[in-house]
Amino acid sequence: MWLTPAEWQIVRFTLAVCALSTLLILPFGLAVAWPLARYRWPGKLLLETLVTLPLVLPPVATGLLLLKFFSRRGGVGQFLHERFGIDVVFTWRAVVAAAAVMSFPLLVRSARVGFQSVNQRLEHIARTLGASNPRVFFTITVPLASRGIIAGILLAFARAVGEFGATIVVAGNIPRRTTTLSLEIFETVQLGHDASAYRLLIVSVIIAFGAVWLSEALMKRSVSR
Amino acid sequence: MFRFPGTIFIFAATLLLRTANGAEVNVYAAASLTDVLKEIAANYEKQSSDKIVFNFGASNLLARQITERAPADVFFSADEAKMDDLQKAGLIVSETRRDLLSNSLVIVVPNDSKLAIASPDDLLTKTQKIAIADPRAVPAGIYTKEYLSGLGLWDKLESKMVPTENVRAALAAVESGNVDAGFIYKTDANISKKVKIAFTVSVEKGPAIMYPIAMLKEAKNKNAAEGFLRYVESDSARTLFERYGFIAKF
Amino acid sequence: MKLEIRRLSLRLEQFTLKIDVDLQRERTGIFGPSGAGKTSLLESIAGLRTPQTAMISLDGRLYENTAQNYSLPVRLRKIGYVPQDESLFPHLSVRRNLLYGIDGNAKHDTFSFDHVLSFLEIGPLLDRDVRSLSRGENQRIVIARALLSAPRLLLLDEPLTALDAKLKNAILEQLRSLHNEFGIPMMYVTHDPAEAIKICEEVLMLESGKITARGHPGQLLG
Questions:
Q1: What is the pTM of this model?
Q2: Could you give the ipTM of this predicted complex?
Q3: Which fold has domain B105-200?
Q4: C and B: touch, per 3+ CB pairs < 8 A?
Q5: What are phi and psi of C106, to 5 degrees?
C-alpha cells in the first residue's frame, strides 16, 4: 500500500472527525446564515463580526479560547467532567470542536449567499398555497439555496481537514488519539521523516483540491443560472 | 548637507564603541533550566559587560535549530543524545563539552487532586490522562519512557499519555487540571505552586539523566561565550543549581 | 363572496394607497395604468404586504385588523395568487408544483386533480421541466396550482401579458367559466379594457392609489 497502516489510520481519523464536525455545524450554520441573509436588526453587525472572527483570529488564539472553555477547571469542561465523566481537552472531541469552530464562518458565508439568491416571491407563493414557515424553508428556500449551502459544506470540510493551530492547543498531538493529517505532517517534518511528510502532503492536496474545485464549480453554476 | 564619508565614519565608530562595551551571548538551553539560568545570568551580568540572551525549549527542537544554523553560541542540553548529534555533525567545540548537571524525575498531580498516587503502578488504575514531554524526541519524555519500560509499565500506560512539546508544557498541563498526573523533573515541580509531587523516582532506580553544555564552533563571540561558560561552572553557580534542586556534577 | 376592505392605507413610493370598499361580485376587475397600486392592493389582500392601517375581512372571516394588531398568517388565508411574473418553483416538476397546494390539505378541501387538469388543458405537461414551458403553458399551470389549493378567493395580477391574442382569448374563456366550473370568486387586475370587459362583472378604476370609479366594465371602459 502506498501509505503505511499508521498513516491510513490518521487519514481515516481526520476524514471522520471532519465529517462529524461539518455535520454538527450544519444546522447552526444555516440557522445563523438565514437571518443574516434576510433580516436587519440593531446588533446585526456584532453577529457578523463574531461569526467571522475565527477566520481572522490567530488559530492558536482560538485554540486558547477553546482550551479555557473546555477546561476541567471552570466552564463547560468542568460540568462535563463532573456530571458525565466526559473530557474534551486532549481527546478527539477537542479535535471536532476546533475543526467546527474554525470552519463555521466558511459555511455561514456561503450559505448566506445561497439564501440571498433565493427569490422571496417564490416563498410568498408557497405560503399562499398553505405552506407553514418550516415547510417553506425546507421545501422551497433550502433547495433553491442548495448550491450555496453545499459549496459552504465543502469549504468547511476542507478547512476542517487543514486545521492545525487550534487543534494542537486544545487537543494536543496524541498518537492514535488526536493526531490529524496536519498534526502528523508537522511531526514528521519536525522529526525529519521527509518521505512520510510528502506522502501525507499529497493526501492533503488531493482532499483540499477536490473540495475547493467542487465548491467553486457549484458557485459558478448558481451565479450563471 | 552632511559630509557623507564623515557621517559614515562616525556611525561606524559608534557601532564599534557599542559592541566594545559588551557582547551578546546566545544561549540555547533546555526548558527545565529556564528559571535557574535566568537567575545565574542576572548575577553574571552584574559583573560582566556581556549580555546573555536565552532561547529555552525542548532540547531536540533547539538541536534542530542549531543544525539549521540558528545563531547560537552555547548549547545546554537535557540529554547526551542531542549533544552527540551536534558533535557528530561537527558543530560544537569538543574541548568545551562538559557534563554539568543531573536531575530526577517525579510524578506530579494538580494541587487540588484527590488521587492517591504513591507509585507508578497507581497510575494504571487511578488515572486517565498523564502528561509527558513527547517521548519520541524530548529528553524528559525519553527518560520517562526508559524508566517506565524498565518497570514493564510503559506498554500499559501508553494509551493514557498526552505528549507535550517540552517538559514545561507537561507541567502546565498538570497545572491546568486537564490531565490527572504528569512526569516532569523535580526541579520543575519545585518552581511550581500549582502541583504537588506524588512520587519521586530515586536516582539509583531511575534513568541516568545528564545535562551537558558546550560552545558552538560558529559562536560569534567566543571570548564572551567562554566567559559565561566559566561562570556557569563556578561555585556561586553551583550553589544556585543545587538550590533549585539540580544535582551538580562538577 | 363578500370582501370588506376598510380604511386601508399603504404608503407606496409615489403616493399612498387608500382603499375603502365592499365587494360582492364573483368576478371583480381592478383596472388602471401601471403604477396605480393594483399589485400592492392584491398583495395586501393576500397578506404578502401589511398596510399601515387596514381592516380586511372575507366572507365574515377577519383577515387583517391593524387597530388590534391582528394579521391572519398568509398560509391560513386560502387566497390563491397568480402573480404577473414567473412563479413556478423551478426546482420542482410541473406535477410537484401542482401538488404543492394539495400536500398537507385535507382531502375534502381540494378539487379533483383530473378535473382541474382537463379544464385548463395541461394534462400533457405534467412531466415537463418547468423551464421548458412557454409563457402560455406556464400561466395555465400557475392558475391550476392556485386552484388546486381550493382557495376562497383567486387573485390574478395581469396573468395574460405577453401572450398572443389567440392564446389570450382561449385562456380568457377558461377564466370566465372558472367560476361556473369551480365556484371560486376572483379578482382580476388588468390594464387591458378588452380583458376586463370579457371577464368581469364589476370593475374598480384605480388611479394613483385611489378608486376613482366603479361600475360595469362595458359602461366604464367601452
A1: 0.82
A2: 0.90
A3: D-Maltodextrin-Binding Protein; domain 2 (3.40.190)
A4: no
A5: -65, 145
